[in-house]
Amino acid sequence: MKKTSGRLLELLGLMQARVDWTGPELAGRLGVTDRTVRNDIARLRELGYPVDATRGRTGHYRLGVGAKLPPLLLDDEEAVAVAVGLRTVTGVAGFEESGGRALAKLEHVLPDRLRRQLAALRDATSAGPVNTDSNVEDPEVDPAVLTEIAAAIRDHRGLRAFYRDEERVEIEPYRLVAWQRRWYVVGRDPATATWAPYRVDWLTLRTPGGRGFRPTDFPGDLTEFVVREVARTGWAVHARLVIDAPAEEVIARINPAVGTVEALPEGRSVLVTGGDSLEVVAVWIGMLGIDFTVESPSALVDHLRVLADRYAGAVAGSA
To answer: Do 183 and 201 form a contact (C-beta atoms < 8 A)?
Structure first.
């Protein structure tokens, strides 16, 4: 017979995987007697897991809604972090089903307060295309800020914030989007009715928040909008390049996460892209393998001149 601790974990896993179990079903799966199952159910209750039961020959056991957080021993921020991680995994090929099951199990045993927070994050979150080649350090985002934004989306409550520590903004939040390993909240400006993605790590929420609002459907494809607008406004450095190749060729060479491409006459195109530094942008556009001209910014032109001199010096005098 299995040790009690191992058997309890297996019993808990079975009850999380299916809604209802009869005593004989559980006994058969665990290889124990019905009496042992009843004793193990009592031990789970002592540990803080709520287990509902109906008596009789056709009685069933069911894992109830979590009444308190232990014995998971997760605080609020840890629970949010686990949910965010599982939500991300469900968007990775090969992990959609298992990640979804794990997230459902976690939500099932949490108290109502945390379960509502996690549900808000799940329902308010989307994932865009990912550039797996990026080596830029990820910005830190306070889980409490994500939770607050998700709750505002759920409750149709406006946000008031400082953006980039200076600009005051008021947003009717629509959706949280994870893109390029960063978090954005897509929202509508109630004064101008314009939509924009806001980097969450650049937001400092103000209290009290904004007023309640009636939600408005987003006019278009959300992922396409975020990719386009972040390429235009969401980087520390933005670049506009004229590429000596048709748009189709440029699109075939880039990850959709790095920017947008516009067709020009005579077989050329415009690439709007960006990065967290001039160095990152310079390296990336050099890897395109296509001739280009920088329209902006001028600082990128200066940086490329420095690189050109450095590379020229590296090959000077070579055979």
So the answer is: yes
| Total number of residues shown for the chain | 319
* Model pTM score: 0.52
Q: Please, how many CA atoms are within 13 Å of residue 269, restricted to the half-sphere of its CB?
A: 17
Chain centroid offset of residue 149 CA: 13
Structure tokens at 1: 């017979």
φ and ψ at 120, to 5 degrees? -65, -40
CA 188 – CA 106 distance, rounded (Å): 32
Query: What confidence tens digit (pLDDT) does each residue in 276-315 have?
Result: 889 989 998 998 899 999 999 999 999 999 999 999 988 8
Four-residue CA torsion sign, 222, 180, 123, 20:
positive
The count of C-alpha atoms lying within 13 angstroms of the C-alpha of 284, restricted to the half-sphere facing its C-beta, is 27
Task: Kindly tell me the burial class for residue 166, based on how many C-beta atoms sit within 10 Å of its own C-beta (0-12, 13-18, 19 or more).
Answer: exposed
Question: Which residues lie below 8 Å from residue 198, measured CB to CB, with a gap of 6+?
Answer: 161, 163, 169, 171, 184, 185, 186, 187
319 vs 314: CA distance, rounded Å: 12
118, 107 contact by CB (below 8 A): yes
Determine contact, residues 154/173, Cβ cutoff 8 Å: no
How many whole angstroms separate alpha carbon 319 and alpha carbon 134? 35
Question: What is the token pair recorded at 50?
Answer: 């709520």
Q: Which two tokens stand for residue 54?
A: 């109906």
Report DSSP state, residue 207.
Answer: S
Q: Which helix (H) or strand (E) holds 10?
A: helix 4-17
Beta strands 159-163 and 20-22: pairing type?
unpaired
8 A C-beta contact, residue 171 and residue 189: yes
